[in-house]
C-alpha cells in the first residue's frame, strides 16, 4: 500500500531531531533556561544586516509579478552569473553562471547531484565521521554507501583505506570540509592527496570517479592560518554543493546551489543530468526572492566572532576537565570522545545534568559525541559547571 522505506524514514526522526524535540518538551517542564541543548546545528547568530536590507531593497524595487514569479528552472540567469563570478574571484576556479543550478539548500544540492550521477551498481564513498543524512541521500538515489575511517587524532581521511576501497563500482567520493561533526578543515595537502588518488584510480579503472564536495560551512573558519581551498582547482571531475544556511544564518529559507566544474569531460552533459534530476525530484525554480538575496549577499557571513568565542570557551574548558576533543578549525561543532565506550550511554548520563548532545554513532563514529556550539555564549557559560560535574562523575 505504501513504500516501506519511506514509512521507516517518516515514522522515526533522526536522533538529532529526536533530541531537539526532547529539549523543547523538557523546556516546557522545567524552563528553557534550565535545558542545555547542544543537539542541532541551528545558527544562533543573526543574519548580516545586509540580508534584511537586500530583502527590503529587492521588494521595493522589483515589480511584484516579476519578483514572485517563476525563474528559469535552474535559477535566474543574473543570479547565477553573479555567484559564479564571485566564486571564480574568491577561489581561483573559473566557472560561469551556466555551470550553476540554484537549489533549495544543501540537502537538495546533494540529492540532485547523487541522482544525476547514479547508475545501477554504483558506490559512493564517505569518510567517518560524516553527516548522518548522507546515508539517506545516497541510498535514496539507489547507490551503496561505503564508509571509510579517518585518523582518530586528526579526523582527516585514511588515504590507505581509500586506495584499497576504490573499485570499478565507485562512482564518487563525498567530502565535507569544514566537517560536520568534527569541525576539521581539509588543507591544501589533504586536498591534493585526495585528488591525486582519485585521478590515479580513474585512470586505473578507465572510468570517471567524481568528487562531490559538500560545503555548507565553507565560510565558517576561525583562524587566519586556516585556508579553505576549492577542490575544483585540483580535480576536474568535481561538483560543489553549497548552502547559504550557515554562512548567512538562513537555514529556514532553503537556498543554495550546485556548481559543475566546466573543466570536466562532457561538463555540459553532466550539467544537463543535474537539470534532469532537479526536474525529476521537483527541485526546480528555487525560491525566487532568496535567489536574489543570495546573489546580493554572496560571500558575506554572520558575526563569526561569536562562534569563535564559543569554540574557544568550550574547547578550553572541556580539555581542562579531562575530555579528549578534536580542535575545530571550522563549522560550529565540537567532537568529543565519550567518557565510556558506549556514547549513547554517555549521552544518557549527561541528560541527568540537562546536557543534550548527539552520539557519534549517527555519524558513523561510535564512542564520540557531537556538541553544537551555535548557541548563546551564556548557555555555554552556565553549562560548564555541569560538564565539570559530568567529568568528575567519570573520574577524569
Describe this protein's structure.
This protein is α/β, with parallel strands linked by helices. The chain folds into two domains: 4-48 and 302-393, Aspartate Aminotransferase, domain 1 (Alpha-Beta Complex), CATH 3.90.1150.10; 49-297, Aspartate Aminotransferase, domain 2 (3-Layer(aba) Sandwich). 43% of the residues lie in helices and 14% in strands. The protein contains 14 helices and 13 strands. Strands 2-8-7-6-5-3-4 form a seven-stranded mixed β-sheet, with helices on both faces. Strands 9-10-13-12 form a four-stranded antiparallel β-sheet. It has a two-stranded parallel sheet with strand order 1-11. α7 (134-140) links the parallel β3 (123-127) and β4. The N and C termini lie far apart (53 Å). The mean pLDDT is 95.
Write the H/E string, N to C: HHEHHHEHEHEHEHEEEHHHEEHEEEH
Strand content: 5-15%
Q: Low-confidence stretches at least 5 residues in length (pLDDT < 50)?
A: none
Question: In angstroms, what is the radius of gyration?
Answer: 21 Å
CATH topology of the largest domain: Aspartate Aminotransferase, domain 2
What is the count of structural domains? 2
The beta-strand count equals: 13
In spatial order, strands of the major sheet run 2-8-7-6-5-3-4
Question: Which CATH architecture of the largest domain would you pick?
Answer: 3-Layer(aba) Sandwich
Count of individual helical segments: 14
Brief rundown of the structure:
By secondary structure, the protein is of the alpha/beta class. The chain has helices at 4-11, 15-30, 49-61, 64-68, 77-91, 105-117, 134-140, 159-165, 188-205, 267-281, 288-297, 304-321, 343-350, 377-393; strands at 36-37, 100-103, 123-127, 144-148, 170-176, 210-214, 238-243, 256-260, 325-326, 333-337, 355-356, 358-359, 368-372.
